[in-house]
Amino acid sequence: MDLQISERRELMHHLPRCGDLENRVSESDGYAWLPPDAFSALPAALTFAQQVFEQRRSQVKLDQRIYRGADLLTGTRYEDAPPLFDLALSNEILQLASDYMGEIPVLLKPRLWWTRPEGPNAQFSGTQLFHRGRPEAPHIRRQAKFLVTVNDVDENSGPFTFISADLSAKIFPGYCSGERVSDEEMYRNVPAAATLRHVGPPGTILMVDTCRCFHFGRRASSKERLLLMIQFMGHADAPEQDRVERSATFVEKYAGDPVRMLVMPD
Q1: Thinking of the domain 27-263, which architecture would CATH place it in?
Q2: What is the pLDDT of residues 136-157, one digit of tens each?
Q3: What is the DSSP string of the chain?
């Protein structure tokens, strides 16, 4: 076994445990709704995300060309977004991610997705259609994503919508990672009632494996959506271009913490 993988598997057992989060994520389901009050770093992260949103929205009002997609975060270092990294590096998040991944995983760049309404007659494409995994990385079979609503999200906000892993595994046996599936084709194989939606007030947290669960998002019709995403992959799978920069500020804060140093490797 690779020495680093062995170290990652050993160190995950040294993480402080939160009893409320034990066995939260079912292997068969591939997702879990999480109790917001279990995450002490959550309020500060939500406040920071709102501040980033207000700043970026003001810029968009001045120049519409600034808006090119949904991710409002531009920094990749700890000091660029301390409250978001404090949540991502919290004992609670790392416990859940490590338990599910079977090792201390690697943190990828946090994202703050802003979805703007497209109206009731919008034509959907790309990630607005059912899919799972990534076409450029079909070998990646597992990941842990934490999705946190920053504003109030309902059906009109284009909520993240998904199907459990066990049900996803039973359909489309020849499916290629990242391939798009229309609603019509999906609902010929599973009932529409089987879909689950990430709706709720600010701070509603979902952990989901988007490699194993068919899903789509960003179908906002009349309301905007602001969503924080914290993503982990196994060390062997985490793309170099998506990893977080290990800055001097991070090293100063966590140099004596072998777990966090593995979460954000060189």
Answers
A1: Sandwich (2.60)
A2: 666 778 999 999 999 999 998 8
A3: --HHHHHHHHHGGGS---GGGTT-S-TTT-EEEE-GGG-TTHHHHHHHHHHHHHHHHHHHHH-GGG--SSB-----SGGGSHHHHHHHTSHHHHHHHHHHHTS--EEBPPEEEEE----TTPPP-GGGSBB-S-TT-TT----EEEEEESS-B-GGG---EE--HHHHTTS-TTPPTT--B-HHHHTTTS-GGG-EE--BSTT-EEEE-TTTS-EE----SSS-EEEEEEEEE-TTT--GGGBPP--HHHHHHHTT-HHHHHHS--
